[in-house]
Amino acid sequence: DNRVQSTLIFTLTFTLISITLELIFGLFLALVMNKPIKGRALVRTFSLIPWAIPTSVAALMWSYLYNGSSGIVSSIFANIGLITSPASMLNSSFNSLWAIIIADVWKTTPYMALLLLGGLQIIPKSLYESSSLEGATKFQQFRYITLPLLKPSIFVALLFRTLDAFRVFDLIYVLTGGGPGGTT
Q1: 144 Cβ neighbours under 8 A, 6+ residues apart
Q2: Core-most of 12, 100, 132, 136, by most CB within 10 Å?
Q3: pTM to 2 decimals?
């Protein structure tokens, strides 16, 4: 059946793009949450709010933001030229894919960040101190200390998130109802 093939391609595309973006944004968020800054507990708390919101509630919120007549996100995207009109945000299969990806990345990036923050917390600070005494830059520390020691946490986070992304239904159903034309 052609619908099985198109659904599988849609699911794989959605999974690959959303997980890639969530890993990038989640790593950035985890690095920010790991910094010893004033109000770190508040930053951690507020950054986890999207993940704590039930998926159907988040999808309803995003459907209002994508609404063709009054949605602020669709209006902004139309004004900067990403979409042809605000009404086309959820009315074309390409735009619907990106609308779903944006909503999913917003919702689950904190989960990815939380998993990566756990990995960052177990990296000994003495490695960073000794490398800075040897003259290593922040980028070199990130490349040669943080990333190699974070690989097991990245693998676990990607595994959990990939399994979770394959079973996303409620977000897509509430946002698009499977449309337009059954493409999502």
Answers
A1: 131, 136
A2: 100
A3: 0.91
